[in-house]
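Input chain follows. Return structure tokens only.
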Amino acid sequence: MDKRKQTVISFAIVFAAIPLIAVAGLSLLGEESAAAVTAAVAVLACVPFFVSFEHGRNDARRLMLVAVMVALTVIGRLAFMHVQFVKPVAAMCIFAGMYLGPSSGFVTGALTALISNIYFGQGPYTPFQMLAWGIVGFVAGLLSEKLNRSAILLAIYGALAGVVYSLILDLWSAIWYGGTFQLSYFFMSVVTSLPYTAIYAVSNVVFLLLLKRPFGAALKRLGIKYGL
């Protein structure tokens, strides 16, 4: 499959299919559909990653690196479990996207939410967490060159990633409160979550600036070594 088709499929899944399934599934079918929606999102989250494979010897290495990134990101979330709204998850997803590609960033975010919620608890919010962290990683991959060149842009993106994550979870909150999406509930969720959004955005910036040197150097070196 050529690069253009891969890109179209990835964009369609990330920005259309998964959001539609998450919102429509929970709005129309209610919380009872949470498990089915989560499973559907999990399957779709892997599609952009696998369609980007070129059936070469580097595919197995890339798969291994992404699996390691997912494991490290899950561990990072667990390590900060007692510190509310301060987690290195978004930063790790951003690194995965920057150094391993957009689809790798998306699948890292999506699978981290799914796997870590085995401990934190699965619920109707899980598909929205998968979507939020996945998008953060995916867009970081698209902006990788610019983010690598400028620490200021990386910090700005980290802060925006916190806002995007919060807004997507506010969307779930609005659906959960009202049964279906209502703008008034969404606005209320956004306003009440502002302090927590600020904390999360700032913590993203801190984690990115602290971890970029060690993680960036290691992933960049591995990417060059294996031609990823």
